From TrEMBL, chain B:
A GO biological-process term: transmembrane transport
Family: Belongs to the binding-protein-dependent transport system permease family.
Phylogenetic classification of the source organism: Bacteria, Bacillati, Bacillota, Bacilli, Bacillales
Pfam family, one: BPD_transp_1
Keywords, alphabetical: Cell membrane, Membrane, Transmembrane, Transmembrane helix, Transport
Keyword Repeat: no
Protein name as it appears in the record: Sugar ABC transporter permease
InterPro entries reported for this sequence: ABC_transporter_permease, MetI-like, MetI-like_sf
PROSITE patterns named in the record: ABC_TM1 (PS50928)
Membrane topology: Multi-pass membrane protein
Automatic annotation (TrEMBL), chain C:
Stretches assigned to the ABC transmembrane type-1 domain: 66-256
Membrane topology: Multi-pass membrane protein
Native source organism of the sequence: Sporosarcina thermotolerans
Pfam families: BPD_transp_1
Protein name from the UniProt record: Carbohydrate ABC transporter permease
TrEMBL record, chains D, E:
UniProt protein name: Sn-glycerol-3-phosphate ABC transporter ATP-binding protein UgpC
Any single GO CC term annotated in Swiss-Prot or TrEMBL for this entry: ATP-binding cassette (ABC) transporter complex, substrate-binding subunit-containing
Gene: ugpC
Chain ranges of the ABC transporter domain: 4-235
Gene3D superfamilies xrefs: 2.40.50.100, Nucleic acid-binding proteins, P-loop containing nucleotide triphosphate hydrolases
Record keywords: ATP-binding, Cell membrane, Membrane, Nucleotide-binding, Translocase, Transport
Amino acid sequence: SNSDSKTDESSSSTNNSSSSSEGNNETNATVEEKVTIEFWHAMSGTGQESIEKIVKGFNESQDKYEVIAEFQGSYEESLTKLRGVGGTKDAPAITQVFEVGTKYMIDSGYIEPMQKFIDKDNYDLSQLEGNILNYYKVDGELYSMPFNSSTPVMIYNKDAFRAAGLDPEKAPETFAEVIDVAAKLKTADMYGFSMLTYGWFFEQLVATQGGLYVNEDNGRSGDATEALFNGPEGLNVFRFLDTMNKAGTFGNFGTLWDDIRSAFATEKVAMYMDSSAGVAGAIKNAPFEVGVAYIPHADEVKRNGVVIGGASLWMSKGIAEEKQEAAWEFMKYLATPEVQAKWHLDTGYFAINPKAYDEQNVKDKWAEFPQFKVTVDQLQDTVPGLATQGALISVFPESRQQIVTALEELYQGKDPQEVLDKAAEGTNRAMEIANKTKK
Amino acid sequence: MTFWRKSVDGRTAILYLLPSVILFSVFVFYPMFRTIYLSFFLTDQNGTPAINVGFENYLYLLGSSEFQNSMKATGLFVFYTVPLTIILALFFALLANEKLKGVGFFRTMYSSTMGISVAASSVIWLFMFNPSIGMFNRLLSLFTIQQVQWLLDPEWALISVSISTIWMNIGFSFLILLGGLQNIDEHLYESARIDGAGYLYRLRRITLPMLSPTLFFIITISLINSFQTFGQIDILTKGGPSQSTNLIVYSIYREAFINYQFGTASAQAVILFIIILVVTILQFKLGERRVHYQ
Amino acid sequence: MGLLSKIWIYFLLLVTSAFVFFPVLYAFLISFMTGPEIIQGKFLPESISFENYIKVFSRLPLMNYLLNSFIVSASVMLGQLLVCSLAAYAFVFLKFKGRDFIFFLFISTMMIPWEATMIPNVFTIRKLDWFNTYQGLTVPFFALAFGTFLLRQHYLTIPKELHEASQIAGLSRFVFFWRVVLPVSKTSLVTLGAYGFLTTWNMYLWPLLITTNKSVRTVQIGLKQLQSQEIATEWGVVMAGVIVVIIPTLILLFLGQKQLQKGLSQGALK
Amino acid sequence: MKRVELIDVSKSYDKQVDVISNINVTIEPGEFFVLVGPSGCGKSTMLRMIAGLEEITGGTLKIGDTVANHLTPNKRDLSMVFQNYALLPHISVQQNITFGLDVKRMKKEDQRKKAADVAEMLGLTDYLDRKPRELSGGQRQRVALARAIVNEKPICLMDEPLSNLDAKLRAQMRSEIRRIQRSLGITMIYVTHDQVEAMTMGDRIMILHEGKIQQIGKPIDIYNYPANPFVATFIGSPPMNLAKAEFNEADQQLVLGDKFKISVPVEEIGKLPRTSMTVGLRPENLYPKTSDKKEGDVFEVEVTNVEILGNETIFSFKLGKEEWMAKWSGQWHIDIGDRLSVHIDFESLSIFEEKSGELIKKTIDYGNYVANKEVSS
Amino acid sequence: MKRVELIDVSKSYDKQVDVISNINVTIEPGEFFVLVGPSGCGKSTMLRMIAGLEEITGGTLKIGDTVANHLTPNKRDLSMVFQNYALLPHISVQQNITFGLDVKRMKKEDQRKKAADVAEMLGLTDYLDRKPRELSGGQRQRVALARAIVNEKPICLMDEPLSNLDAKLRAQMRSEIRRIQRSLGITMIYVTHDQVEAMTMGDRIMILHEGKIQQIGKPIDIYNYPANPFVATFIGSPPMNLAKAEFNEADQQLVLGDKFKISVPVEEIGKLPRTSMTVGLRPENLYPKTSDKKEGDVFEVEVTNVEILGNETIFSFKLGKEEWMAKWSGQWHIDIGDRLSVHIDFESLSIFEEKSGELIKKTIDYGNYVANKEVSS
Ligand SMILES: Nc1ncnc2c1ncn2[C@@H]1O[C@H](COP(=O)(O)OP(=O)(O)OP(=O)(O)O)[C@@H](O)[C@H]1O
Ligand SMILES: Nc1ncnc2c1ncn2[C@@H]1O[C@H](COP(=O)(O)OP(=O)(O)OP(=O)(O)O)[C@@H](O)[C@H]1O
Ligand SMILES: [Mg+2]
Ligand SMILES: [Mg+2]
């Protein structure tokens, strides 16, 4: 099998040399000896730019390995592609998969758990952010290397707060406070509060109350069979939104990130929920002062914190061993504070290695934009637990779609419990089929 | 197969059709049979058939209100887009068919929408539909008309998507119809003009009948394409709000590529196929009779 | 044509084409805007800056992508023209049993949603080992029911006397096809060519699925790389990319429409 | 040089049955065979069947010695001038002409030469580089003709190839076509409406009417001895005058349309039927009355119409319900309403049985003038 | 009833300049105006300009009293028979015929009646429900004719409307067209290649050659007194024979092609130029030698070709390099190589100046026969 992998390596390297001559690689002379691996990612725009810089840094930092980062479309698209080659020697060494694909990846049989290399290499996991690792750990084993991680935050218009006679430094914390403030902020042109119609935010608002999404300990102790999000915590969230919607203080800006962001930037809404990765953009685009706060929670419970979102990196099974090694080396490189600092600054994603926040360039940035610190604080303040670890189900995308539909129907004036139950039902059916067909 | 050997024409036909037949077999028929096959299964997360459920997928779909809603939305969408696209494209094509200086420029403008990918044009439309900064709402507010939540209001979303779809398809229909118009022999108009036939009369009695093969073609194609609209839905509304724009193909896409339910996705594809087939057969039966070929 | 009707037509041409072209123009304007300008919904850029264009070119190997797109689109176009015109010829000028049935079978291929056949096709391409190759990007699209249908409709309008005269002149079927049918059908071939080229040029999902590296990737994937989801997209850059990608297609359309000539079969008959 | 044989050939269209019925004729190798008949009688259909463009619904077509019913047109080795030209619109005149040669892979050089020759002959030299749509009607027709001629196929079918040419050019073309046909020994089947072409070009003429053969024969024989009244009126312009006639036993006279009483020579009396019959008389045989004619066969008629053609004058008069025409050489100053005396020879009458239309009395061979003899009449 | 006036009208195409140049002619209201000329001379172009289908590149066209250069065709209130029929392929014969009536929103009922009438007249009754492609060539042409007739417009343009009809039908059509034109007072402009149509239908004929007017006049005048050799050879079939001639002062004879020596009457001598000239003689004026002719003007010729047309015989012979033709009434048994005596009257010669082509001696008006007089020659 060794000779096998040798030949396919050389063929793949000739394949790549054609691209590197046109692309931006400069490793022609030594290409024969180097182990070349592919890194499939779904980062476009600034994310991709940053990844390419990091990869370049890695390739230059040593001369044994060569990583080629290739954009493979959106998370869904790249996952679809992975299914075409998963488990074969054509698979890339590293694939970036979104957080809701975690369960799918674990079950797929395409991957080598990260824990294997951590144990072999005695890698010190504690240097990484625990609240991020939690999500990707199942039964205490780390399956994939966290990479681009984000959490939701609440972003608000400080100028509007001032105009409404509110304290711009004190953002509302509970559902009731938000409802209250939203009512005060509401003007003819401006809604008080908004949230992207996206399941992720709902999950977060449930989790911060300590609510579980599905049974079987949020799917972490076995295959989940029943949705729990239509329980009291979920209902709280829906009531919260419903109240504002009915009061006319809630603005519905649909399912697209850019729509809600431009609504905020054009002062159509005073508070909204965004990803921590969107903070930089919000500050940059807004012609007013922007505040960032923790996401609100129901009044009767204490805040649990947030669940990590974003994506992680997975190592393929069935590829040559030296490729796996190369991939592991690269992942370690990624986790270094310098790289993470750069990553954090470029993209607004968290640094998985908190030491990165001690880097000077991060400090400088934070000084200039204290808002960034809020996002990190919120993450670090999170109480670890089943709820904030996040649910693990294979049909997550479908379930999220059910939530979107439920939210949309809610905004049309339907009963919160009714629409939630319908979403739960749909999720249950999906889980049932998934469990039935599982090998 | 013996009847093939009967005529030289038959044998030649095989030769001429061979490339198409081979490619279709590999890239269309084989996947189609696979789709039909899959539609009788529940698949696992990797898309391999796991449990044979017979017609259950179909029964489930036909009973599901979501799917019924999809069908309804698709029907409405087809009804909104096809006639308008063709009428507008025909109007533009007639304008651009006049022998005038600089008409090539206008032709390029009209057909330009064909040069923009669905993804790119959807993004542009997204901007225009944007509730806060979009063109449309700002125009409405300029005239102090009640603003419309174009893509967010279930009442409007399908119409908005239809408007953008009409725009996207107009370039293509325009080009086809213009080609058809160019193909009409100028001489046919001469006698009519001498007889004193005005523009509309010539349009009705000569242009449209002579254009009928092209019209027939573009109607058929537009119907089929419209049933299969996907890209703009994915970008503009993702099927929402409240499923109001969840057209069948988008639903198939979501089922297959997001939910990994290839069984039901395939069943939907098969149902869609049958619907389009019926529509097309009707179209051929009713339409081609009115088509005038040379 | 009277002067009045000329003015009237020009007026209609101007107004309607402006409407049709407006979204493109809008994209063009956006491509000069800065992020805040866009997200705040400005209509005209405050200043014309080419920064977004510079970004597009620096972020992507755009020339390389454009070249790939061009090669792929041109090949698909030629392949389609050939395969479809052959098939359409058979459907119009050859008499054989089951002709209508086979034609309808062809038509039926249009009714299968492409999304439903995509996954099996990716597997087929992998079995053929055509990942990251031009074949993989082009060959599956050579056969096109749409094109066959379009050309068939045109062939049906060719005066049958031309076929007869050619038969009498002793032309073989192929020579008739090549030297008479094709030239006389120029308008439809141009239309189909434009369609084939542009749809391929605009294709995104397929090239994405069967390429894993930059070597043969096309420009639409590049465009997609300019947009992000969670992080705010720089729409100015995206629109600059869109404009860069549209320009070749507009040029092509301009050249193509010139080939749409009147009366190609005029003068054939008394 | 090939024989073309039609055995019991019939043709029906969807909308019209028996367009052609039971045609039996053999066209000899190298023969110039002219096909005439009224518009819509099936001439083009017949040519198209021979060419293989139209399915033969009944009977057998033989070309050379092989049954050709199911032979494709390109296997029949013939050329054709279409009634509606069927030029290739996208290529130049030159290319249209050499199209068939090019197919046979003749050298470009030779093609050009041939095209130049035939274009010269047809007066198309200046138009070789034009597209058909830039030509006049007559020029297009000549291109169609050129294309058929240049191929030099053993069989050539021409469907009214000169109909859109002027008289002068047409006369020239007539002799050119005839010359080429003779020198190459082409078997020619030629459809025309032109009397002069029919009379002068063909070795034989076939007259078709409603899809049925009326008569086949040498042009002059058909002119002189038409097999039935239809042929009689179809060949010859103005057509032969017809009238119902009866033999008046008492006067031993033939009575035409109750008006003309023509004395019958004794030896002929026996041959005439006693029932009524149709009598035909060619307009040129209604002679102006000359001094040396006896009174008996001179009749006075009232002119109802006059046409002066330059070298001849045609006038009409009524005979019963029929309109008769007379043709006199030269230009006559005749006015409508004039009363003229004409005389009729019994010898020049053609007499047909009324029912069957069969010719029972031929006109005399009045072409019996011998060269270098003096004219009597 | 409308006047059509062309003032200095010219036309050029991209590929051919001066297809028509400087045409000046006025066609009177109700006139039947015949346009003839060799193929490609610009007849159709002229009609199309009058109809408004072709742009006029120079000059002024007046219809009635208004300048019509830029009038659209539908404003000109005329009808036209196209040389290539221009039938609408997708509608039935009936609908084709009534197209113009329908445009005028005539009642369906009336339309049908009119169509039925005209179809009856043109023998199309059985074909009213067919599509044009299911018709024969001649039937199509009749549909084109029907369409123009049924409209009853004050001006009617016909471009070779009878070219594809048989002689019998054509004769019938000729008189029908003439009748309708007269009864409705239509101003008719009629293009034809047919000598008979040109001679018998028109009030005036215009002869066009290479886009220029050669002569305009009454048919018989043009036949008798052609303005130049071109017209002389163009009108009349077979054409007038031409030869170069010189006047031999010594013998007082006119010498044609170094061969025919014709004595000139004394009173004519003064009128002849002394330089060389072109002499024309119509074939029918090359009479067979009769006993009463004096030897002087009888010449012996060697027959090079013979055509028997039924009622006349045409033979050719060489005069110098020219081929001359003679036409004799009746059927003559002449063979190629026979030597015949023909006689020529000086009176029947037309003499043209050689350079300018101007007619300097007219032929006598030899149509001077008076009705009811006996024939002399
Ligand atoms: N579109 C065109 N472009 C260039 N030349 C043309 C065009 N149409 C006609 N011509 C030329 O103009 C001349 C006159 O054409 P026109 O059709 O008027 O002839 P015509 O007198 O009707 O001849 P015919 O008797 O053969 O129909 C011809 O020499 C022809 O080749
Ligand atoms: N496709 C068709 N369908 C039905 N009838 C047809 C079709 N084509 C021709 N006919 C009829 O067949 C008859 C013979 O047509 P054909 O063309 O052979 O006539 P033709 O002798 O050539 O006449 P012409 O001298 O007018 O050209 C006509 O009455 C015509 O109407
Ligand atoms: Mg015919
Ligand atoms: Mg003409």
